[in-house]
Design brief:
Number of domains of chain B: 2
Strand content of chain A: 5-15%
Structural class of chain B: mainly alpha
CATH architecture of the largest domain in chain B: Orthogonal Bundle
Shape of chain A: rod-shaped
Number of domains of chain A: 2
Order of helices and strands of chain B: HHHHHHH
Number of helices of chain B: 7
Distance between the termini of chain A: 69 Å
Structural class of chain A: alpha+beta
Number of strands of chain B: 0
Largest sheet of chain A: 4 strands, antiparallel
CATH class of the largest domain in chain B: Mainly Alpha
CATH topology of the largest domain in chain B: Rna Polymerase Sigma Factor, Chain: A
Shape of chain B: globular
Helix content of chain B: over 70%
Radius of gyration of chain A: 26 Å
CATH superfamily of the largest domain in chain B: RNA polymerase sigma factor, region 2, helix turn helix motif
Number of strands of chain A: 4
Oligomer: heterodimer
Strand content of chain B: under 5%
Strand order of the largest sheet of chain A: 1-2-3-4
Number of helices of chain A: 9
Distance between the termini of chain B: 51 Å
């Protein structure tokens, strides 16, 4: 690398002290070729910022938020998220991770589903067995009277159980899941991962909803 | 701050931006972020309170990306620069010209050797100082600036050629 390029970079990257900066600007004023070089490199830096800065304002995928929260979220409802379910989800996570050749560790509970995501839309409006990138499986009430639904989300690469608070859906349990891993035909809950089914078993109070109950609960806006 | 977990959530947008500049597409980039977060949580005892969490996470991402690159090579997957960058600036508000330019940038980035791409990304996308970027890459500052210079020259040549 030439000393000249090194100077141009250091100038643009803010690595020069005030005196060196001044001297470089004087050089630039006297040397149009140098000035043009600086302009070209400044243009490159601007293009890179323009290409990647929009990522900062994109919504963060739920699976990443959940992965980051995994360590500090103690299970909110300890009795529901049984040790057996956690162990099962761990085993499944390992299996899925191997199959996909990509580590997709199970993620932890307690996160709120951000509104306006595909997952929130499906939990609010979807019905079992409807096709889509986010699918709803089972719907039921837990012992506290909350509505709960199992889901499989292609975009989030998650399957899990979400229950409805006064304000929003909260993830009770979630585990790695990919669209490719599902059979082509299905019935409600048939392709729900065992870890999620175990969580349903733990949370379920009474029976899983039939289609009419599910539709009525949805049309009622999930009011308690 | 002795518990890094909450701060990691706040770092996610920057980790995603960095990963997007390194990866072939948005899905690969988010997989890289997830791997980075998982490794950081497993090794969170190694983070020393009082040091910068972002630099520490970037270093983990750098190592994860290099490991993944080796795994990709072993599996025989080839990254085609033509496929790169289709998700760059996926922000729906971006106009067509901005989008095309972002794709051209991503294709040029995909052609860079890994070490140059890392240097360019840390300094020009993430805005780290030379010292910070050298720390993340665990190389002397002279090595960083040399990679940065070669990377910049190659990008400029590629983009100017494409513009003609």
């Amino acid at each position: 690398m030439t000393e000249r390029l090194e100077q141009v970079m250091a100038y643009l990257d803010g690595e020069l002290d005030a005196a060196a900066r001044k001297a470089f600007e004087a050089d630039m004023a006297a040397d149009p070729e140098l000035a043009a070089e600086v302009a070209a490199h400044r243009g490159l830096a601007d293009s890179l910022k323009a290409a990647y800065d929009p990522v900062i304002d994109e919504p963060v995928p739920l699976r990443l938020t959940l992965a980051a929260q995994a360590a500090n979220d103690a299970p909110r409802r300890g009795r529901l998220m049984t040790w057996a379910a956690m162990a099962a989800s761990l085993v499944l996570g390992v299996l899925v991770g191997r199959m996909a050749l990509a580590p997709q560790a199970p993620v932890a509970v307690g996160g709120q589903v951000p509104a306006r995501t595909q997952l929130a839309q499906a939990l609010d409006h979807g019905l079992a067995a409807e096709p889509g990138v986010v699918r709803i499986g089972l719907t039921f009430r837990d012992a506290g009277g909350r509505y709960c639904r199992t889901f499989q989300s292609g975009p989030d690469k998650l399957a899990g159980l979400a229950c409805r608070d006064a304000k929003a859906w909260r993830i009770e349990t979630a585990t790695a899941w990919t669209l490719a891993a599902t059979p082509t035909y299905r019935t409600a809950g048939s392709d729900t991962p065992p870890a999620v089914l175990a969580a349903v078993d733990g949370a379920l109070s009474g029976q899983v909803f039939d289609a009419a109950q599910e539709r009525a609960a949805r049309d009622g806006g999930w009011k308690p | 701050m002795d518990r890094p977990e909450a701060a990691i959530v706040e770092l996610l947008p920057r980790l995603r931006r960095l990963a997007r500049a390194l990866s072939r597409d948005a899905a690969d980039a988010d997989d890289l972020v997830q791997l980075t977060v998982e490794r950081a949580l497993v090794h969170r005892g190694q983070w020393r309170p009082g040091t910068r969490l972002d630099s520490w996470m970037f270093r983990i991402m750098k190592n994860a990306w290099i490991d993944e690159g080796r795994a990709r090579t072993r599996r025989g997957a080839v990254i085609s620069p033509e496929d790169a960058g289709l998700d760059a600036a996926s922000d729906g508000s971006a106009d067509m010209e901005t989008r095309l330019e972002a794709q051209a940038v991503a294709r040029a980035m995909a052609r860079l050797p890994d070490d140059q791409r890392l240097a360019v990304t840390l300094v020009l996308v993430e805005g780290l100082s030379y010292k910070e970027a050298a720390d993340v890459l665990e190389v002397p500052q002279g090595t960083l600036t040399s990679r940065l210079g070669r990377g910049r020259a190659a990008l400029l040549a590629e983009l100017q050629e494409g513009a003609q």
